[in-house]
Each structure stands twice: as structure tokens, then as C-alpha cells.
Amino acid sequence: MKYSSSKKRMMVQEQIKHVFNVPEPSRLILSNIRGSVDIQSGDDTSILVTAIKHPDTGDAEHTEIFISQRADDTVTVKTRYRAKSWFLFPRKHPCKVDYIIRVPRACSLNVSGVSNTATIQGIEGASSIDTISGSIDLRNLSGHLKISSVSGDIKGESLSGTLKLKTVSGDVDFSKSKFGEINGSTVSGDLDIQTQITGPCHFNSISGDICLIVPPDTNCSVKVSSVSGEFITALPSSHSQRRNGKGFYEIGSGGVNLDFDSVSGDLSLTAASSAPAGPQEELGLDSQEFRHSVLDRIAQGKLSVPEALHELQA
């Protein structure tokens, strides 16, 4: 079944409701342009979609809502704008659409948005979330979690499973979580993640700082490669080695690998029950003048990050 809406502008809300019966495992694909998305767990045999269109917030005539169920029972929800690109012609833009959706707890999600906020909670299936400028709020999720954001901030609590995270300038704040594996990347946004370290973790940063808040009895092996970033921790270290932009640290008795690559971002490893990190472990680069010259060449585009690290390690 398919529903579309493209009515003339009115000063009242347009609301669409639809219920789809779904088998296990269920799947939802949602794409919004402006507005909000609220997804929570509901009935285990159905997906309930409520779409609220706000005609007074934009070009209602060319803003359409499509809701359908595929042959494989995947439910798809999409906001479409039929006018010319609203990025090129900002005087006209799509109106806001708010989606309130209830899905089975084990539903897998694929959610994307442009200028769109998203709240998702109580889901145990794999989740893929992609946004440009909207914020994301995640609660009580488990399974594989993939997040991509340009400028929106991301908050989360009680998350578990594996995490693949990519952000440009948005900040990330996750608390009370337990990730089995983390692969995180940031340009200038800061990452604050409270988690147990039970699997390999790799972080890549240009200038964003990364703070991991872990149990005080954490055992892990840390490798840091950075042009000017520092490794900061108050956790006991049984062995450390620093040379030419690289640092190796055994936290506790060592164990799970924690790798960190950066240009100028810092890595902090802090115990959850303690105050912010104490003694600072520096990477011990040979020359401040040489380090600044490397940073200047990166800024001028004359040197890539891998090339810079290679020079520092020579």
C-alpha cells in the first residue's frame, strides 16, 4: 500500500496514520528532510507510522509524504521535495514533517535526515542513522549501531553492541554503555564515551578530543599516533614507551587493543568513579619547532596526515 500527500498550503496540520503487520525480523527505512523523528519499541507484530505535516513551515505544495510496504515486508517512509534544490534556492524549502513511529523491539532501522532531529529508544536490532545538521538522542539500544553525522550533536545512554561512528563537527556524549567494539572517526567534534572496553577500539581524529570513561579496573593496550595530540590518563600503567609521535601503554595488565590516530586531538582515558584525568602522559616528540613545521605543512595541504606521522617516526 502506498500513500502520498501534496496538498496546498493550509495553516492546519496534516496527519497520516498507518499500521503495517510485519513478520520477524522486521525492518524500517525512513528518510526525512526537515522536522523530527521519534522511534520507540511497540507491538512485536506491527509497525505504526504517524506522520504530521506542518504546511505553514515551508512549501507544502511540493512537500510529499510516501509510506509503503515492500514485497519483503520492509516498511519505507519518505519525505520528498519536488521543487528545485532548496539549498540553491533558500527562499523556498520543504515544510517540516514530524514522524512518530512504533516498531517491534527487534526491528532493524535505517534512518536518514537533512535538517532533522531523531530520538530512538528501546530497540534491539541493527540501527543505521545518518544526519546532516540534526541532533540525535539514543536510549536503550543494543545491536550493531552505525552513526554518521555532519554537524549535529549526538547523545546516548545505555547502549550496547558494536559501534561505528563518524562525525565531522558534532559532539558525541554516550553514557552508561557497553560496546563490544568501537570504530570512531571525528574531524573537529569531541567524543565522550562511557563504556566498558570488551573488544578492540579504534579512533581517528583531526582536532577533536576523545575521552573514554571506563571502569577503574580496566585492562587494555593503548597505541597512540599523533602529530601534536597527547595521551592523558590517571589509570595505572604497567609499561609505557614514547617516541617520535607514537606512544604505547599497558593499562593495568594490558589486554584489548585501543588504537588512536590524530593530528592535534587528545585522548583521555578516565576511570568512571574518579575525578577527571590526573597526571598527563606526553608523547615526547623530539622538537617543538619541528612539530609546528609539520602542522603548518598539513594546514597548507603540502603534507597528508600519514606522511606527517611517517616523518615524525623517522
Task: Briefly characterize the structure.
With about 325 residues, the protein is mostly beta strands.
Topology:
Blueprint: E1 2-3, E2 14-21, E3 27-41, E4 46-54, E5 63-69, E6 75-81, E7 96-103, E8 108-121, E9 127-131, E10 136-149, E11 154-167, E12 172-186, E13 191-197, E14 201-205, E15 210-214, E16 220-226, E17 231-233, E18 237-243, E19 246-251, E20 256-262, E21 267-271, E22 280-281, H1 288-299, H2 305-313
Parallel strand pairs: 3-6, 3-7, 3-8, 8-9, 8-10, 9-10, 10-11, 11-12, 12-13, 12-14, 13-15, 14-20, 15-21, 16-20, 17-21
Antiparallel strand pairs: 1-5, 2-4, 4-7, 5-6, 16-19, 17-22, 18-19
Taking the alpha carbons of the first and last residues, their distance comes to 63 Å
Shape: globular
- pLDDT < 50 stretches: 6-10, 274-288
What is Rg?
23 Å
Order of helices and strands: EEEEEEEEEEEEEEEEEEEEEEHH
Number of strands: 22
Major sheet attributes: 22 strands, mixed
- Overall number of domains: 2
Question: Structural class, please?
Answer: mainly beta
What fraction of residues sit in β-strands?
A: over 45%
Helix % is under 10%
